[in-house]
Design brief:
Length: 395
């Protein structure tokens, strides 16, 4: 380590300890304890906070901070992972944390225990080089905002941890979320925004009857088919300055009918919309319902039931923070990353309401797959990048 903290754990050793904790949501399995012990040892004030509500599992979360003044940069992430699937299909144990041929294997190696490990290792190195403080003059703060509830319903994790921190008076100036943002190679992409997500179910009511007497029934299947085509065919928009076009995708169609000689009474179709900054959730609901009403006419009885959503569009505008991240990445990798808003949702959508946030972590090619793995060299490079971010941030 460049800071002289030679006895500090490396990103690889931290990642291996985390991978050996089978923390499939909602289980913690000791993962947060690994981080707590490391951070307490170098002077962080560490809080373990559990959230729960009826009908959901209790989730353990961690917040740790060193320093008590601005500027305050936080590293966010999650230690929970998706299930490993068929563990016998793994080349190396899903929770063994084995290194083979230069790769670290394990569930969470990429998404995103590896990223957390790099963040912790970089911070330890930075503190060692600055007298155990974010800056030698004692100013500045570094924190970790870590949840165990990202891969499932995301109810008792980052949302509530941010609310808890705000109630304590915590104020974040900037955030780095260590999700696997890179597509092909380390340094090719920083996520600076995400489209929002909104889901609903289209219902079409008919009249049940015998297929031999269709005049006594009203078949909702042809009607819902026509509405699916109408809602799918017309673009919601053509994209904006920083976002690709919004898209509405139907994901299932069902009539709940097992009999081949019965016209069903109802048909339903689930859909999801990924939307850009040309819409709000409210304006999008209005637009889709207007299009449905127009396509349905006066004869078809159709309606949409919307699911609650806390997934709004956000973007961190290019500026000093993105510039220093780009510089740190380019210095280590030789690549100038694209500032991207593509992809699915992440906990950055919650953090964006509190401070500017960027996502930069490992390469996401094997996340959620059998034999999830990352090159050990990428762990070393990402640690150097995070250290470069910190050096520039507190310069």
């Amino acid at each position: 380590l460049s800071g002289g903290m030679t006895d500090a754990p490396s990103a690889l050793s931290i990642a291996r300890d985390l991978l050996r904790c089978p923390s499939v949501t909602p289980a913690d399995a000791g993962a947060l304890g690994v981080l707590e012990n490391i951070l307490k040892a170098v002077g962080f004030e560490v809080h373990r906070v559990t959230f729960g509500e009826p009908g959901t599992a209790d989730i353990d979360n961690l917040y740790a901070r060193i320093g008590n003044t601005a500027p305050h940069i936080t590293f966010a992430g999650h230690t929970d992972v998706v299930p490993p699937g068929d563990e016998s299909a793994w080349t190396h144990g899903a929770f063994a944390g084995e290194v083979k041929d230069g790769f670290l294997y394990g569930r969470g190696a990429v998404d995103m225990k590896g990223g957390i490990a790099c963040g912790v290792a970089a911070v330890l190195d930075h503190l060692a080089a600055h007298g155990g403080k974010p800056r030698e003059d004692g100013k500045g703060s570094i924190s970790f905002l870590i949840t165990g509830d990202e891969e499932d319903i995301s109810v008792n994790g980052t949302v509530k941890l941010l609310q808890w921190a705000a109630a304590r008076g915590e104020k974040f100036d900037h955030c780095v979320l260590g999700e696997p943002s890179n597509l092909e190679a380390l340094g090719d992409c920083i996520k600076v925004g995400r489209r929002g997500s909104l889901s609903g179910t289209l219902y079409v009511d008919g009249v049940q009857g015998h297929v031999a007497y269709p005049h006594r029934a009203a078949n909702p299947v042809p009607d819902i088919s026509a509405l699916i085509v109408a809602l799918s065919d017309e673009p919601l928009d053509h994209g904006s300055a920083q976002f690709q076009a919004s898209n509405l995708e139907f994901t299932s169609v069902d009539v709940g009918n097992t009999a081949s000689n019965v016209i069903p009474a109802q048909a339903r179709a689930k859909f999801n919309i990924r939307f850009n900054d040309l819409h709000t959730q409210e304006s999008l609901r209005t637009l889709v319902e207007q299009r449905m009403t127009k396509a349905a006419g006066n004869r078809v009885r159709a309606r949409i039931v919307w699911e609650p959503s806390n997934s709004n569009v956000f973007v961190t505008e290019p500026g000093a923070f993105t510039d220093l991240a780009v510089a740190a990445i380019e210095e280590v990798t030789g690549r100038r990353p694209e500032l991207s808003t593509s992809g699915g949702t992440s906990d950055a959508r919650f953090i964006a309401g509190y401070c500017p946030v960027i996502e930069f972590g490992l390469v996401g090619q094997t996340m959620h797959q059998i034999d999830e793995r990352t090159p050990v060299s990428d762990l070393e490079k990402l640690t150097k990048i995070y250290r470069g971010v910190l050096d520039r941030y507190f310069a």
